[in-house]
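Protein: ABC transporter ATP-binding protein/permease
Species: Rhodohalobacter sulfatireducens
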Amino acid sequence: MKLFESITYYFGVYKHFIGKRLYIVFALTAAAAITEAFGITLILPLIEAADAGDGGLERGGRAVQFLYATLELIGIQDSVVGILIFIGAIFIGKGFLKFVEGGYASYLRAQLMKEIKGKMFNAYRFMDYRYYADNNTGHFINVINGQINNFIRTFDTFTRFLTMIIITASYLSIAFLLAWKFALMAIAVGFVLLFLFRYLNKYVQDLSRKTSKEESLLNKFLVQTIQSFKYLSSTNQMQYLKGGVMSSIKRLAFYMFRQGAASAFTKAIREPVSVIFLLFVIIAQVVVFDSPIAPIFVALLLFHRGMQHMIGIQDDWQKTMEKIGSLEMVVNEFEVLEKHREESGERPIGKLREGIELHNVSFRYENKDEDVLKSINIRIPINNMIAVVGESGAGKSTLIDTLTLLLKPQGGKIYIDGIDSSEIEVGSWRSQIGYVSQETVVFDDTVANNICLWKGDYENDPDVKERVEEAAKRAYADEFIREMSDGYQTVVGDRGVRLSGGQRQRLFIARELYKNPNLLILDEATSSLDTESERYIQKSIDALKGSITVVIIAHRLSTIKNSDLIYVLEKGEIIESGTYDELSLNSESKFSQMVAIQSL
Ligand SMILES: Nc1ncnc2c1ncn2[C@@H]1O[C@H](COP(=O)(O)OP(=O)(O)OP(=O)(O)O)[C@@H](O)[C@H]1O
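Structure follows.
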């Protein structure tokens, strides 16, 4: 991208998030810069009023005429003290404008952060399950925290970059009005410098892109290491992940150093370049034009300020480029998420009345060559208990994901109460579902909040308290909860690390029972329980029979004895269906073989 295109592109990105308010910052900056340049120019009449010469500049010039006219209007054109007070007032005014500008820029920065993080969080909330499954947690955390924070930093440096252009332009245009020959020289030198810096900018920009990618990778390694801490420590395998983490950190450090060195270079040459230019101007004035320096004193002061700011332009652009990889990554993430936004119909669905029907449903994962579900036909009538069994990898969980509408089948239809699922507003359906999945979900909060999921106040609402405890009793969790230090108010810790596997699962079941769902999905819900807990929970589940619709996936076939109908899934196909007795009594059936193996 050409420089100008890049500037307008990045400007467009910020404007997209904070709107026209962005212009206010620049208006305030220009006002502050012009005020300061005006203050410096006042030295001209000051010199004159103090009888130290005539400032060397033609009084006929329009700018100078305007200056004197202003002083005459106030009545201080000949008063040294008057002019000094006026200069003081101008600089106080400039200070005030700078404060307002800085304050407003901070306000916009905070707004930008709120806007982008909020939007990204929402975009993540509504991303489709496939995109979630294809990425790792580290990536999401990195984007929403690290990369967005860098994005905000680029906003600072980018606004400062444009601000510097405005200030430089203000100084140089006033200098131009006072002594145009030198102003032209300064502008020419500035452009040559900016041209030379092009390569440095490109270098820093490439480093920034690499850094953003590396940060994502590092985050992935870190999150995986922390998540699998227990396993990795107890099997002494931390070292294998450590290698990846350390080399990623090393690469990041190297990028950081190179960016820092480039930045130090720009900063270091700012002063010498400006001074060398001034020396040239002085030499030109004294040697070539054979004139004294005093007359161009004010113009020199303005040039010096202007030149410093001009190199500041480069410095801030470079700093923007240092983090531009993050801006690009965030913008790209928004674009990708827009494409991976979960599709949903518009039609809200009421309480399940008739049941669910899968009609010739087939599904294939993008990276697979074979269908995982092949022309599935299943009926789940209301208040029935339906079981799905099959070997590992048969497609049971995939089937469940189509029921919750997380996965959209490529072939066939799913009807809920006779309504085509593609028309249904997914939220209205999912809020009726209770789902005990294979991965137990426990939040770092109290037991009570883990059960009611913050949908009530356990401590102050007796109704909530009663319902929470009732759900826990039905999940056979009440007893162990009461034995904990603070009972229902005990904080269970991140991912439930302070609970045993069986306790975590019972807590999970309690939450789903509390929800009072219309469809309860149990995917290996009792697999990590001891026989006694399992039997007890089985009783609770059996007690639900006839009052809510239940879909059970279980490897242990004894747990599905009471189901109304059992479907046997093999390699994505329903090969048998019937009641437990029908299937187990048929010696030809796959199901009876499975039962036989389990009773060995
Ligand atoms: N996100 C995914 N991307 C690609 N393939 C997948 C994905 N999830 C599952 N599969 C594949 O789909 C097939 C069915 O998987 P599924 O999890 O539905 O089986 P399952 O019957 O529930 O197995 P288990 O009893 O072991 O949980 C498997 O071959 C699996 O490798």
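Remarks: The longest strand covers residues 355-363.
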